[in-house]
Inverse folding.
């Protein structure tokens, strides 16, 4: 992109310190630090000196010199107290990570990796039972949030530096991966209960960022395709980027204006790229546009890492102020053993995370949810939205009857209007025929052959009637189309309304339901059984991981190290680490079982494909039927309204047509009288006929007609009021 819009970042509050029987001046300067990098430095020094202190004086849990230490828990605001110096270390380390997250969220966009390092060290080296805000789930969430935001900062710099499109796409894809891990943690019910109301805000922001940075990744994949002159691929990547950005915009409702501006800017860029690429391909290159899932997925490039925390680094902690209290050798040996434990944990976690990644990708590709794999329970009852419509119609038993009667009345008035207009038209045609006979007798027009051209009306009155009749016929013709459409709509909905007004068992019987054979049911049961096995495997893996972490946290061999010769340290480490062998075996068995479980799931899913398709079709029919029935209910009031409008319109038109008919009769009567007078005058002018010659036949006299008044079409109701809504 030509510029780099910024998204807001999540930062964490610092914990507040309470009671700790330590030097007041030291305590005050260590916990009430300024919110800047100098504050980070102070926290690191204090953390390091606490580490030196606890390695020499028995201030741990249930030890002789332990004193109460109080800190405020972030989410509940409660004061939590433990008699363990490690609790003080853990809280200081949490504040170090929180302060780095706060600084990282500022304009300079730095120190997110430091925050991730602090939370990772806290997660891997301290008990998770001290307080809710330092539980394993919360710390895992914090680590992934900080790594995601660190990668986001790197992405911003990469785009500003105009790095290669493919590299930018991979960096952005990794941002998505980190945020997906964070989102999984936020969706965990236990984590959500721990976070409280802040969980919804964080989850909404993280979900929006997942779609936003996925859009950025596909934007740059499209740019790479453009550089490689793969114009079909360019179109599908830009289209995918546009789709994902639209999802991000949906999720961004309620976010600050800065976010909206960033999304609008990005939409301008991606929208422009997509429109240009599609136009070029349609008119110039004509390359086939592949399906997105046929292209290689963008693999993330993790270019950030949690910066390690070393509590004994003199460059950070300063000189050891407790150096003369106890031998440093025991402390150094303990640190070495802690590193061995951490290495063991890293090795095990690398295997677990690799297997989890494969499992997550596999399950995502299948899109199978054990809770909704068949949805059979849905078909056993009428859905609430339909029950609501049935209940509403049950207290209005005449609904269908009223609609039918209304449409019948409309049809009657429509027929009356049509009859009146036809009679007027017949009168005009008969008058024209009589006028033509007179003209032929007078020799003013030749005798008719075939279909003669029409004559002008014989009088101004008839001319006015003819003109007004044409207007009414045009209005009637247009209204006739509307009337027909209204009847079609009524016929479309009347059956559904009768169904909704009837017994509930008939409504239920009208709804689609799946018909499964015994083999189909067996396929479903087998699939659900294997999906349950998958979840059991996940749960066991998480449990074993938690047991391993707790075992490592409680493993303190300082007492043994004090009495062990330096030359025997390695052997002691090896012996002590054997205590983890059994749980490692269980984890290896769990990880090895995954391949067989996924193979069984693959086979079960293949057999499930036909059943899944059938269930999907039935579900589609079910949803369509529900929507159709609900639409018929909602269309009732509109049909009644338009039916009444139609009746009002035709009643008015019928009255005006009746007046016009009276006027036509009077005008035709006057015209006939005039023709009789003209004929009599002409006959007087002619010589008497020979006795043998027959008298000329007089034209057939029109029936006597009554007079009528004028007619005005200006006050007819507009036809637009009868236009039916889309149903």
């Amino acid at each position: 992109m030509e510029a780099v819009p910024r998204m807001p970042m999540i930062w964490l509050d610092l914990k507040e310190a309470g009671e700790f029987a330590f030097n007041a001046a030291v305590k005050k300067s260590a916990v009430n630090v300024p919110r800047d990098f100098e504050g980070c430095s102070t926290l690191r020094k204090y953390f390091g000196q606490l580490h030196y202190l606890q390695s020499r004086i028995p201030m741990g849990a249930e030890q002789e010199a332990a004193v109460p230490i109080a800190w405020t828990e972030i989410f509940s605001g409660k004061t939590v107290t433990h008699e363990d110096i490690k609790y003080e270390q853990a809280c200081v380390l949490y504040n170090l990570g929180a302060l780095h997250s706060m600084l990282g969220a500022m304009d300079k966009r730095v120190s997110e990796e430091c925050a991730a390092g602090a939370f990772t060290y806290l997660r891997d080296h301290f008990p998770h039972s001290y307080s809710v805000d330092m539980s394993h789930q919360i710390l895992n969430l914090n680590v992934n949030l900080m790594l995601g935001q660190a990668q986001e900062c790197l992405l911003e710099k990469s785009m500003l530096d105009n790095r290669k499109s493919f590299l930018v796409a991979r960096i952005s894809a990794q941002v998505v991966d980190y945020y997906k891990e964070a989102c999984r943690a936020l969706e965990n019910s236990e984590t959500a209960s721990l976070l409280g109301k802040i969980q919804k805000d964080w989850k909404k922001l993280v979900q929006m960022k997942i779609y936003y940075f996925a859009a950025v990744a596909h934007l740059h994949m499209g740019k790479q395709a453009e550089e490689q002159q793969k114009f079909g691929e360019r179109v599908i990547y830009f289209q995918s980027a546009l789709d994902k950005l639209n999802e991000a915009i949906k999720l961004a409702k309620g976010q600050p204006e800065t976010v909206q501006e960033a999304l609008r800017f990005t939409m301008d860029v991606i929208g422009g790229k997509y429109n240009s690429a599609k136009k070029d391909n349609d008119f110039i290159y004509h390359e086939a546009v592949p399906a997105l899932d046929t292209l290689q997925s963008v693999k993330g490039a993790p270019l950030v890492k949690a910066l390690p925390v070393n509590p004994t680094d003199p460059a950070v902690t300063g000189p050891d102020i407790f150096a003369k209290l106890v031998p440093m050798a025991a402390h150094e040996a303990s640190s070495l053993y802690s590193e061995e434990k951490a290495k063991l944990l890293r090795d095990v976690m690398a295997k677990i995370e690799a297997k989890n990644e494969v499992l997550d990708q596999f399950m995502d590709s299948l899109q199978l949810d054990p809770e909704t794999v068949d949805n059979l329970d849905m078909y056993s009852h009428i859905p609430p939205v339909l029950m609501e419509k049935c209940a509403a119609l049950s207290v209005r038993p005449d609904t269908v009857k009223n609609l039918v009667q209304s449409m019948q009345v409309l049809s009657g008035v429509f027929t009356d209007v049509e009859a009146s207009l036809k009679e007027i038209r017949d009168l005009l045609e008969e008058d024209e025929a009589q006028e033509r006979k007179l003209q032929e007798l007078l020799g003013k027009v030749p005798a008719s052959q075939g279909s003669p051209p029409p004559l002008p009306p014989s009088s101004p009155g008839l001319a006015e009637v003819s003109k007004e009749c044409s207007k009414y016929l045009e209005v009637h013709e247009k209204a006739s189309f509307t009337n027909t459409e209204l009847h079609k709509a009524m016929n479309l909905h009347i059956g559904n309304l009768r169904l909704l007004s009837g017994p509930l068992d008939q409504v239920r019987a009208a709804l689609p339901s799946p018909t499964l054979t015994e083999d189909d049911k067996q396929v479903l049961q087998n699939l659900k059984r294997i999906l349950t096995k998958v979840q059991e495997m996940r749960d066991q893996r998480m449990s074993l991981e938690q047991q391993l972490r707790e075992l490592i946290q409680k493993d303190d061999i300082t007492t043994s190290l004090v009495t062990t010769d330096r030359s025997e340290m390695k052997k002691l480490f090896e012996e002590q680490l054997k205590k983890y062998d059994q749980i490692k075996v269980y984890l290896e068995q769990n990880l090895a079982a995954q391949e067989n479980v996924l193979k069984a799931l693959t086979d079960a899913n293949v057999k499930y494909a036909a059943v899944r398709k059938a269930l999907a079709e039935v579900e589609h029919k079910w949803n369509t039927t529900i929507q159709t029935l609900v639409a018929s209910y909602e269309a009732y009031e509109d049909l009644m309204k338009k039916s009444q409008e139609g009746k009002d319109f035709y009643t008015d038109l019928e009255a005006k047509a009746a007046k016009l008919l009276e006027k036509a009769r009077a005008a035709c009567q006057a015209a006939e009288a005039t023709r009789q007078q003209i004929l009599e005058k002409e006959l007087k002018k002619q010589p008497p006929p020979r006795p043998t010659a027959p008298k000329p036949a007089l034209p057939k006299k029109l029936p006597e007609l009554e007079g009528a008044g004028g007619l005005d079409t200006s006050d007819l109701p507009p036809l637009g009021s009868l236009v039916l809504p889309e149903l």
Notes: The beta strands are 17-20, 69-72, 79-82. The longest strand covers residues 17-20.
